[in-house]
Each structure stands twice: as structure tokens, then as C-alpha cells.
Amino acid sequence: MKLVEHFNSFLRDTVNLNATRLKQLDESADALKNVIRESDWAPPLITFEEQGSWAHQTIIKPVKGNPFDADLLVVVKPVDGWEAREYLSSLKKVFSDHPTYKDKVTRSSHCVTIEYTGERRVDIAPCIRNRNNISGHEVCNYNTNTFERSEPEEYTNWLRDRNRWSGSNGLKKVTRLLKYSRAIKTTFSCPSVLPTTLLGMQLTISDSDSTDSFSDVPTALRTLIHRLDDWLQVRPTRPRVANPVLSSEDFGQLWTDSQYENFREKINLYRDWIDDAFDEADRDESIGKWRRVFGDEFAADVELEKTASIVQEARALARARGASNVVLDPRGDLVDLVHRFGLSVLPPGFEKRAYKQQPRWRASRHGMFSVRVSATLHASRGGARISEVASGQGLLPKEHWLRFEVREARGSAFGVEKYDVHWRITNTDHEAKVANCLRGRFETSDDGNARWERLFYRGVHMAEAFVVRRNDKMLVAQSRPFYVVIG
Question: Does the domain at residues 371-486 carry the CATH identifier 3.40.50?
Fold first, then answer.
């Protein structure tokens, strides 16, 4: 499902830099500009220009407590006889000598940075116009003491054209989403200019005549990731990514070979995940699959539990399956119904939960083998077995333990030296929700290929096993849910 309304709220509430931070950034930049204007810094000032994601309007909210970056160019006339290093060292001295900024300033290869207590930082880069009577702009590299050609304003205009072709700011929104995914998942690493440029390259002016490919955010995302993946897959080795407004500059050099290989692999994986989420017809299942791409903040406000309606559906199923002459306690919950009438009263789709984490492994291309989960009841972890427990059997007593084990469908075990078994333990119902313990994420085995779980919350819960081959990290088996009924 596209879940357009959730994408819109996700961008607004989680991804986009909010108005308060943008105002703080503008105020900080104005103050920094005034410091430069009022200083005795030698280069004659021409103007200031926003650069990078700030200028492109693809800046995102800080993730995991990290500060967000904003780039500010100080466009100046050249100073006769100055080397590249002098522009940076003298600009750093302007702020080092200032009482407000002396403890906030650092210098890197191309800029002077002012950091505001981990919340945000502004990178100020000198940009020299028409040095040595050569028309154009240059930035300064302190490490090599060289001037480097740069045309930031032309690049911003190039990007704005392509964003306009995508309709409704589709390119900007998709760029923010990809940057957010990079930030929260940390599965690939590269400067923002690379994904920004590569996504922009996937658009042509003919897209401005198309409404289907960019009709909404998830459709624009799918379109651009498909095109980007197609572009990457025909380039198995690190390609040249020319600056579209300065062909002598190769953004591809910002990657190492291994970083490019990883980026190419992850975009291909995200394409599969996006297609899976986009095509999923079940709403809760689709939310879970989109969260595989964007994390738990996607559709974070969705109602995770619909206990009342589930119980009503279960009662209707119980009546339809021969319980019409049996008095159903109107106060009875799902546990009562499953205990009396078995798993057949579970409504279709009961096992689908929006808060369930989706598998992050690719399914084996050579097919999956069948596995099943078995369980034994124990009074304590590691204690003597009380009994075997079948899926849906209950009522199981709280404070006892279950030991789950996964085997091939015919009952034989498989070697722990070849496979890792991951468990998805999912709680449901009122007690687990109140305790903020619905879970649904993957857990590792803690006893060979088995896992111990303590019984805490009344409800009908689930345990599932996922078997991953160690040598290639492929998912080769997945069990059906094993239902745990706790009284």
C-alpha cells in the first residue's frame, strides 16, 4: 500500500527540519555574517550564499542526537598574493578572536565550522570569485593549499530544475527520505552530494509531462529508486559521477571502491523492500514493511491494537463454527475464546501486526526449506521439563518458562555451524500493551538454535523462527507462528 497520508505526516513530523530549527539557523547565519562584515578580514566581501542541503531544501532533522549541518559560502574578491590556506586561517582567526565564538570554532580542509552545543553547526567556506582574472568561483583546500573550481549556484539551479520536473517537490522529498534512511540505518556511507546528484540525474524534462510516475511521495520514491538501481546495476565498479555543471569535478571520487559496492548493494535491497511494501495489500503488514526501510518512526502514531474488534470477530467465528448453542461470556477476551474453541477462532490476518519487524535478510534464490517450532514448559529457565506444549495450547501459567526449538519439518535438527536462528517474539493484547512490551523485533537464539522465554502477560502471543545461512546471510527458512496462550 502507498499509505500516502503516513508518508506526508512522516515527512512533516520526523524527517523535515522543523520551522523552529530553520529560524534558529537563519538567526545564527545572520549573526555570523555580521561578525564577518564588522571584522577586518582582508578579502573584499561580495555576498553570502547558502550551499548544500540548506540551499537545496533537502536538509533533514537531526537523527540520534547528531547535529545538523548547514553550509554558508562567503563569496569574496581575491587578495593579491594570498595562498589558499590564508583565506581559511585568517577567517578562523576572525572567530577565534570573537568572545562569542572563540570556543565554538574549528577548521577543516575546506571550511571554518561554528558548532552550537551539538544541536547544529554552520560550515563557512570562503569562495573566491574571478581569481587571476579567470571567470568563475574557487573554494580553498587547506590540506593541499590549492584552489578548486566550484559552481554552487549553478548546481543549485540544476537541482531546482529537476525538482520542478518531478512535480510537487518529488525529488526534494525523496532525497530527504533517502538521507533519513542513511542516517538512521547507517548501512551505507557517502557525502550527501552523491545521492542528491544521482537522484537528480534520473530525471529528464520529459518527466514534467508525466503525472503517473510522481503522483505522490511513495510513487515518486519508487520511481526514482527503480531508476537509480537500474543505473547502478549496469556499473559494477565505481563510476565517474560528473558534477552536472562542472564536468571536470568527479563526485565519484568521494567514494572508496568498497563504499560504492555497498551503496550499490543497499539501493538494490531497498528497491526490493520498497516494492514489497508498495505492493502489500494488508495495511498493517505494509506499515511493517515500510518500517523496514525507514525505521519505527514511520506511521508511529498508528493504532497498534484493535483488541475489541478482534474479540468481536473471534466470537463471530466461534458461533459460525459450531458454538451457536454455547453461551459466550460477553466479558470474555480472546484468551477465553482460544482456550474454549481453539485457534480456529483467530480472525484472518491476526498474525499481522504493524509493529512486527520485517525480515532484513534476502530470501534464498534457490528456495526455502520447511521448519517448525516446538516448545516445552519449565518452572524455571534451565529447569526440568514439565511437559511439551502445542501451538495454541493453554492456559499456560504466568512466571513459567517456555523453551522454543526449531527443527526441520520432518523433525530432524540442523547444524548450528551452518545456520543462525533468529526469533521474532510478538506479544498482543491489553496487559502487554500497558507494560509497553508488545515487542515484535528479532531476537537471537540463546541456547544453540533454541530460545528461552518467560511467561508474563495474559494474551495470545506468537513466536516465529527465521533461519539464516551463515556463509551468505540468506534467509533459507521461516516457520509459521507458534501461538502461546497465557492465562
Answer: no
